[in-house]
Design a protein that fits this description.
The complex is a heterodimer of chains A (about 675) and B (about 325). With about 675 residues, chain A is an alpha/beta fold. Chain A has 3 domains: about 1-80 and about 175-190 and about 205-335, Rossmann fold (3-Layer(aba) Sandwich); about 100-170, no CATH class; about 350-460 and about 510-680, P-loop containing nucleotide triphosphate hydrolases (Rossmann fold). In chain A, α8 links the parallel β7 and β8 (about 205-210). In chain A, α7 runs parallel beside α8 (about 185-205), α15 (about 455-465) crosses α16 and α17 (about 500-515) runs parallel beside α18. In chain B, β1 and β2 (about 85) form a beta hairpin. Chain B is built from 14 helices and 2 strands, in the order ααααββαααααααααα. The N and C termini of chain B lie close together (about 5 Å). Chain B has a domain at about 95-280: MetI-like fold (Orthogonal Bundle), CATH 1.10.3720. The longest helix of chain B is centred in the first third of the chain and has 36 residues, at about 85-120. Chain B has a two-stranded antiparallel sheet with strand order 1-2. By secondary structure, chain B is mainly alpha-helical. Classes of the chains: A alpha/beta (about 675), B mainly alpha (about 325). The interface of A and B includes residues 60, 82, 86, 107 and 366 of A. Chain A: It comes from Ferrithrix thermotolerans DSM 19514. Chain A: Keywords: ATP-binding, Cell membrane, Membrane, Nucleotide-binding, Transport. Chain A: This is Peptide/nickel transport system ATP-binding protein.
């Protein structure tokens, strides 16, 4: 096989105003023709900087300080910019994570796709446009010719990502660098885009450098995988090997901390202690040593270099030899016994037939209503005391709106939210304010949800002051206790949010939600902004605090594995409707709704065996507009089982087992008999 | 698009109508009895009353406003008893002369500020950026007339390259034909405006340079020049459009000082003289013009934005 790209001893530094980030050091990798190389690691490990180093597109202050990058034997490091420009977009193309910001909002997609063709291939404008139509067609843009004059904002996220791929493909590159190509997308769209990349690779024999944090994404398609940690390449081998026969303790620990579908959720999740080192001042010796379970004294003295056989190299003095971490070797603890309310008791939270629409207006001054977005359409559910309820669905399905209504941040058009039997929307003023202490929220964005100008102490004390509880002295004692509970030193109270890492900030967010001893915390995507090794720490913390504080969670997430691990019962939403509701195990083992099954099928699992054998049952199409949702069953436009009746009659929730309900005319499993269904229908 | 523009235009008209109401109410409050002002302190109350009655100044305010509005629609802005001629004829070519001064300096300022701001953003925290920023802040913090005094001292009095006074030609054509005399006032206005605009442009271009689509444009293999002109320019100008639209009336205020300083017979100088004469009809016409310019500036900026930014193209 011919070697297309070869990197040796690459070092890239980024000069900041007062320090130098040693972002990438001594990285070796190679890609052969027609091969997909997965480059995985957590944020800040240098995987993107490696990709940008190849392209010569480093951010300001970034510079390749050593090593070589060869494209088909030709050295790229030190190549003058004029020469490098002929390679960029022509021989090596790159696609980025966020298609909504990566396309120029003021240029039509036709112009943007034709631009590199005109640049690298010359020829007339007409020829470039013809090529643009050809590649847009290739990446599956329906009616490519008609859409040439569309602007990026007129396309959905999935289509925009396809346009970006079309730009990259337009000049038939030898190497395609895909930097987190599907991270910003929903799972169903992610599956479509990944499939497209696979097909294109097959057809054109390109080599792909797939940069991702998601082990599931590489499992299904990479031929080989390189793992990076803190700017260093730590392990490189075949995909199958990396999952079943890894050598580096970091690879082993990373894979062990991903919540699996069959995870025992009464036990703590395995997690790597600590956080990655600061790359402006990396520790001497092995960079993983401070977090490594196998560390010995020599690990801290000198840095291990990559060694091993041709097809398996590892940078470790004490490589692991026993494959994936065995469950019995993981230090896992029971979460403790939660006291959960029985079936007969009044539920803690009862959501009854909640509806919410948002007006769509047109015109800048004289706003006219031209329609409504049906965000949440008649959702009912209950959360019992001590229970964790999971809510899953793709973006735009209304799960966040539902969460905001439950904590009273948004007023529903109709329906009720009962907390301990009392309708929170019938309350006004002071009584409502008082009630709010029982309902708290934990947000997704650990950066945006904490006031950057408030010290942590002030952030934790504010809810207490608003609710008028406790004296200043007690408030202080309470803040210190809370910090201890979420595993942060009390000294940290005097610091500002920006001084913390993402995981620590999420801990602060949890502490803030806990200050008033709420009965229910609505956690909206609590860990989706965090890296795998940090995520498991926060998940464990959330579980532990739930037991010690005797509260319930409503966890909203697009990540089914996270919800499966956290939740007792799970509700699946699609386009404003609750389509299925079941206990976690039931949902995964015998999903009744085709959408639920489709979601489960499309999650990339960190297991090459399953991923490759998986029949690619990709949910086709995209989420319909919530302004004009389909009649009858809202999923029917994308459903493989849809028949005539689905467009006419909206399916009702039917019973499929103990606490298992789904709304589908043609379910995947047989419902219980109608009589039982009818009685079960109202009481979910 | 056409429908949107039409609605936008109608709302602008409504705002202008409101401005005229406020302007008229103010005129009425300040000088409700023009007879006294015209006939002097020694005139008999009877004569004053007769004058007011003859000219309709004793009608109810609503009727008076109605007449004023009808006059406005015919382009009649009132009568200056101090100068003993209609306001419109006082305004006369002053408007055009001011328009020339403001227009030329605004266009020049934009043409200089945009590339300058982009240059600064590209050379961020390098020597060139520091020099331009220092210069811009010096000019920005300087009162416009003070800069004018410095310019006159340096170029007119010491070096004697340019005359200290702007063109005194009565016709606009005459003014245009005398660029040497107009050099200093235009330079003065341009310098002050470039100072502000270039810094806005710098920060807007810096925002733009950090965007992912700039990175993608580079990943296509485009040269720096192609990236800047093809991808950065249009996106970075968008925030400038609104800013320029909003600063149109400020230009009028800037003219007030510059025109007075260079003794240039424009709206600013007219306003300054009317202020000293307590010539209220003229002052309020100026206010009305300023109000209309504000609305027009906004309207033009909105239209320009809808053309420049495809995301706000409304149906």
């Amino acid at each position: 096989m011919t070697r297309v790209l070869e990197i040796e001893d690459l070092s890239t530094h980024i000069q900041l105003s007062r320090s130098v980030v040693q972002a990438v050091g001594n990285v070796n990798l190679h890609i052969d023709a027609g091969e997909t190389l997965g480059l995985v690691g957590e944020s800040g490990c240098g995987k993107s900087i490696t990709g940008l180093s190849i392209m010569g597109l480093l951010p300001p202050g970034g510079k390749v300080v050593g090593g070589s990058i060869k494209l088909e034997g030709r050295e790229l490091v030190g190549l003058p910019d004029a020469e490098m420009r002929k390679i960029r977009g022509n021989d090596i193309a790159m696609i980025f994570q966020d298609s909504s910001s990566s396309l120029n909002p003021t240029k039509t997609i036709g112009e943007q796709v034709a631009e590199p063709v005109l640049l690298h291939r010359g020829g007339s404008k007409k020829e470039a446009v013809d090529r643009a139509i050809e590649v847009l067609d290739l990446v599956g843009i329906p009616g490519a010719k008609e859409r040439l004059s569309d602007y990026p904002h007129q396309l959905s996220g999935g289509l925009r990502q396809r346009v970006m791929i079309a730009i990259a493909l337009s000049c038939d590159p030898k190497v395609l660098i895909a930097d987190e190509p599907t991270t910003a997308l929903d799972v169903t769209i992610q599956a479509q885009i990944l499939k497209l990349l696979d097909d294109l690779k097959e057809r054109f024999g390109m080599s792909i450098l797939l940069i991702t944090h998601d082990m599931g994404v590489v499992a299904g398609r990479a031929d080989r995988v390189n793992v990076m940690y803190a700017g260093r390449m730590v392990e490189a081998t075949g995909t199958k090997e990396i999952f079943s026969n890894m050598r580096h303790p970091y690879t082993q620990a990373l894979l062990a901390s991903i919540p699996r579908m069959d995870q025992d959720n009464t036990k703590t999740l395995f997690s790597i202690p600590g956080i990655p080192p600061d790359l402006t001042n990396p520790p001497p010796g092995c960079r993983f040593a401070p977090r490594c379970a196998y560390t010995k004294s020599d690990c801290q003295e000198s840095e291990p270099s990559l060694s091993g056989s041709e097809d398996h190299v590892v940078a470790c003095f004490h490589p692991v030899m026993d494959g994936p971490l065995k469950p019995e070797k993981m230090v896992t603890l029971s979460h403790g016994v939660r006291e959960r309310a029985g079936e007969g008791e009044t539920p803690l939270l009862e959501v009854i037939d909640l509806e919410k629409t948002f007006p769509v207006t047109s015109g800048a001054i004289l706003k006219r209503k031209v329609g409504k977005v049906h965000a949440v359409s008649g959702v009912s559910l209950t959360v019992r005391r001590g229970e964790i309820f999971g809510l899953v669905g793709e973006s735009g399905c209304g799960k966040s709106t539902l969460g905001r209504m439950i904590v009273g941040l948004e007023r529903p058009d109709s329906g009720k939210v009962l907390l301990n039997g009392e309708d929170i929307f019938s309350l006004r003023g002071r009584t409502l304010a008082k009630k709010r202490r029982d309902l708290q929220m934990m947000f997704q964005d650990p950066y945006g949800s904490l006031d950057p100008r408030m010290r942590v102490a002030a952030i934790l004390r504010e809810p207490l002051s608003i609710q008028g509880v406790e004296s200043a002295k007690d408030q202080e004692a309470r803040s210190i206790a809370l910090m201890r509970e979420v595993g942060l030193p009390s000294k940290a109270l005097e610091r500002f949010p920006h001084e913390f890492s993402g995981g620590q900030r999420q801990r602060i967010g949890l502490a803030r939600a806990l200050t008033l001893n709420p009965k229910l915390i609505v956690a909206d995507e609590p860990v989706s902004a965090l890296d795998v090794s940090i995520r498991s720490q926060v998940l464990n913390l959330m579980k532990r605090l739930q037991v010690s504080h005797d509260m319930a969670y409503l966890v909203i997430s697009h990540d089914l594995a996270v919800v499966k691990y956290l939740a007792d019962r799970i509700g699946v939403m699609y386009l404003g409707k609750l389509v299925e509701l079941a206990r976690g195990d039931d949902l995964y083992s015998r999903a009744a709704h085709p959408y639920t099954q489709g979601l489960i099928d499309t999650i990339p699992l960190p297991d090459p065996e399953i991923e490759r054998d998986k029949k690619k049952r990709v949910i086709s199409g995209e989420l319909p507009s919530p302004i004009a949702p389909p009649s009858g069953c809202r999923f029917r436009t994308r459903c493989p089982r849809a028949q005539e009746i689905c467009a006419i009659e909206e399916p009702k929730l039917r019973t499929f087992g103990d606490q298992h309900y789904a709304a589908c005319h043609f379910p995947l499993v047989e419902p219980l008999e109608e009589a039982a269904s009818a009685s079960g229908q109202t009481k979910i | 698009m056409a429908g949107y523009l039409f609605r936008r235009f109608v709302t602008s008209l409504v705002v202008v109508l409101g401005i005229s109401m406020v302007a008229f109410a103010m005129l009425h409050l300040i000088s409700s009895s023009p007879g006294r002002a015209v006939l002097g302190l020694h005139a008999s109350p009877k004569a004053v009353a007769a004058f007011n009655k003859a000219n309709g100044y004793d009608d109810p305010i609503v009727i008076q406003y109605w007449h004023y509005l009808l006059q406005l629609l015919h382009g009649n802005l009132g009568y200056s008893y101090k100068l003993n001629q209609p306001v419109t004829s006082v305004l006369g070519e002053n408007v055009l002369r001011s328009l020339y001064l403001s227009g030329v300096s605004l266009v020049l300022a934009i043409l200089i500020a945009i590339p300058l701001g982009i240059y600064q953003a590209v050379r961020r925290n390098h020597l060139g950026d520091y020099i331009v920023t220092s210069g811009a802040f010096t000019l920005y913090s300087m009162p416009s007339f003070f800069l004018g005094l410095l310019l006159i001292q340096a170029f007119a009095l010491s070096l004697k390259i340019f005359p200290p006074e702007a063109s005194q030609s009565v016709s606009v054509i005459g003014v245009i034909e005398d660029p040497r005399a107009m050099f200093l006032p235009i330079l003065n206005l341009v310098a002050i405006q470039v100072a502000g605009y270039s810094q806005y442009m710098r920060s807007s271009a810096l925002d733009g340079l950090g965007q992912d689509y700039i990175r993608l444009a580079r990943a296509k293999g485009l040269s720096q020049k192609a990236v800047l002109t093809g991808h950065l320019l249009r996106n970075s100008i968008l925030p400038m459009i609104t800013l320029i639209g909003l600063s149109v009336p400020a230009l009028l205020a800037g003219n007030l000082l510059i025109e007075t300083l260079f003794n240039y017979p424009g709206l600013g100088l007219m306003f300054y003289n009317a202020l000293q004469n307590e010539d209220y009809p003229i002052l309020l016409s100026y206010t009305l013009i300023a109000g209309v310019l504000t609305v027009a500036g906004n309207f033009i900026a909105d239209v320009a934005i809808t053309i420049a930014d495809p995301r706000v193209r409304l149906s």
